[in-house]
Design goal:
131 residues, mainly alpha, Hypothetical protein af1432
């Protein structure tokens, strides 16, 4: 199975298992993942990036781990997902403090990861504007 299709299936199953919905519009979470992957695919044919776009929230939001991602998709995809995963924890402080920690983390990320993050932000902003 192709890398992107495998990532799509993995992410879809992981997010459906926890019945995750978008907080802005109550759509199935996979709608967001598909949008992010499509935005990334519109600017690159890099299969690792498109796969990571499908998987960008899987470690943060589901029981899946970076080890699971690396085992299934390889080091390149796992590194992108790691760059895209918030590292702050509730014990790190208030929301402002946690967001500052996460901003510093993504600032150190690769250009490839930042491209995926921008696609994520574009889709989030689009959802907010439509509510």
């Amino acid at each position: 199975m192709a890398l992107v299709e495998k990532a799509k299936q993995f992410a879809t199953i992981a997010h459906k298992r926890i019945n995750q919905l978008r907080k802005y519009n109550n759509q199935p979470y996979t709608v967001h993942l598909s949008s992010v992957a499509n935005i990334v695919a519109s600017v690159t044919d890099d299969e690792e990036m498109i796969a990571a776009a499908w998987l960008h929230d899987v470690v943060e939001d589901t029981p899946a781990t970076l080890y699971d991602v690396e085992k299934e998709f390889g080091t390149g995809v796992a590194e992108l997902v790691e760059n895209l995963t918030d590292i702050s924890k509730p014990g790190d402080g208030n929301r402002l403090t946690r967001k500052s920690i996460d901003k510093k983390h993504i600032a150190r990320a690769s250009q490839r990861a930042k491209t995926i993050k921008l696609a994520d932000l574009i889709d989030n902003a689009s959802d907010i504007m439509q509510t």
